[in-house]
């Protein structure tokens, strides 16, 4: 049996941005649903963070999710197994109140898992593991210890895996707790990372600047052979353009329509030509433009930010190189959480 695994869809992201939802929809219409139909897939496992905000839902975002995702899955006869993630649990210390359970009760094809549960996918017994918190940690670890399932799928915060291309998580549970399984698939971290047994599958699309040029999509999993196949999302939203006295007249700006663009200036000897270059980008219908010309952090003469780095990677490297008595990994985690929250209110 083949099942589709998708995670961290974050419906309603970036304050229910139309730009982002249009970008998401292109993936679903052109990649996700056609693949389900082509492969004859009737089961989807959603490994968490289906909706973006754990505090509430914009009615427009909910309508979008139902009209463009859940209604279509129901019409196709697809069963959806939905695991509660940290973004869909209202409280931080319990999964009892969660968005997917409250918002999706009208769908008889959607099953929600707020506690560790053994589920049969085809002939494969699989342990679903939702977000681990203060209330369920003891029971979850006991279930992991005693289960006979060969495979686990969940929304886990494990140390030693990449949060994104720049950051490796140094907090969380140890992956050795999952050594008994042949395969573990997880959501939560948006970039793909694995240790040979535990696989973070990554989310379907770019959402922040640190996602640029990072492979995204979903996976097809064969429950008989235990083989997984990545179905990549070919569509991008974030683009870096490196300006080196680039000829605006020959520069093709058409692909940047409705994209978020960052122009990194390496060489600019003629201000008027640069302004015409920027004007051409605007005329192509870009959604947002950032221009980066100064890479120096003035507070430290010994630190240089490289043009290929994004904000988060610069901050983390700065912390790593700083002479401070605090636990640097703790500071980096705090910065990451603040950065993510800041991105969500833009």
Detailed description of the structure:
The chain has 346 residues and is α/β, with parallel strands linked by helices. It contains 8 helices and 15 strands. The chain folds into 2 domains: 2-232, Metallo-dependent phosphatases (Purple Acid Phosphatase, chain A, domain 2), CATH 3.60.21.10; 238-344, no CATH class. α7 (311-321) packs antiparallel against α8 (328-344).
Second rung of CATH, namely the architecture of the largest domain: 4-Layer Sandwich
Tell me the total number of β-strands: 15
Oligomer: single chain
| Mean pLDDT value | 91
Tell me the domain tally.
Answer: 2
Full CATH superfamily name of the largest domain: Metallo-dependent phosphatases
The CATH C-level name of the largest domain is: Alpha Beta
The CATH topology of the largest domain turns out to be Purple Acid Phosphatase, chain A, domain 2
Radius of gyration (Å): 22 Å
Largest sheet: 6 strands, mixed
Q: How many angstroms separate the termini?
A: 42 Å
Q: Label the structural class.
A: alpha/beta
Q: Strand order across the biggest sheet?
A: 4-3-2-1-11-12
Task: Give the helix level as a range of percent.
Answer: 25-40%
Order of helices and strands: EHHEHEHEEEHEEEEEEEEHEHH
Outline type: globular
Treating each run of at least 4 consecutive H or I residues as one helix, how many helices? 8
């Amino acid at each position: 049996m083949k099942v589709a695994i998708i995670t961290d869809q974050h419906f309603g992201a970036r304050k229910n941005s139309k730009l982002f939802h249009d970008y998401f929809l292109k993936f679903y219409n052109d990649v996700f649903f056609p693949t389900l139909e082509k492969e004859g897939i009737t089961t989807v496992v959603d490994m968490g963070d289906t909706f973006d905000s754990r505090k509430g839902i914009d009615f427009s975002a909910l309508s979008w999710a139902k009209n463009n995702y859940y209604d279509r899955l129901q019409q196709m006869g697809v069963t959806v197994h939905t695991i509660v993630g940290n973004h869909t649990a209202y409280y931080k210390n319990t999964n009892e109140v969660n968005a997917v359970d409250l918002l999706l009760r009208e769908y008889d094809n959607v099953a929600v898992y707020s506690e560790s549960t053994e589920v049969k996918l085809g002939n494969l017994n699989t342990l679903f593991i939702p977000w681990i918190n203060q209330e369920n940690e003891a029971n979850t670890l006991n279930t992991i210890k005693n289960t006979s399932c060969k495979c686990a799928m969940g929304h886990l915060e494990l140390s030693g895996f990449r949060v994104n291309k720049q950051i490796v998580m140094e907090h969380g549970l140890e992956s050795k707790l999952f050594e008994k399984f042949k395969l573990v698939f997880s959501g939560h971290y948006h970039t793909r990372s694995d240790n040979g047994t535990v696989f973070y599958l990554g989310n379907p699309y770019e959402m922040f600047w640190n996602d640029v040029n990072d492979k995204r999509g979903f996976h097809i999993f064969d429950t008989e052979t235990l083989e997984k196949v990545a179905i990549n999302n070919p569509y991008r939203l974030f683009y870096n353009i490196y300006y080196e006295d680039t000829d605006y007249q020959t520069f093709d700006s058409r692909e940047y329509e409705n994209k978020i663009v960052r122009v990194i200036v390496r060489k600019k000897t003629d201000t008027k030509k640069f302004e015409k270059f920027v004007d051409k980008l605007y005329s192509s219908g870009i959604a947002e433009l950032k221009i980066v010309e100064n890479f120096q952090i003035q507070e430290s003469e010994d630190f240089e930010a490289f043009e290929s780095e994004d904000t988060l990677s610069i901050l983390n490297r700065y912390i790593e190189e700083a002479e401070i008595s605090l636990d640097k990994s703790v500071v980096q985690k705090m910065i990451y959480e603040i950065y993510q929250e800041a991105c969500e209110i833009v």
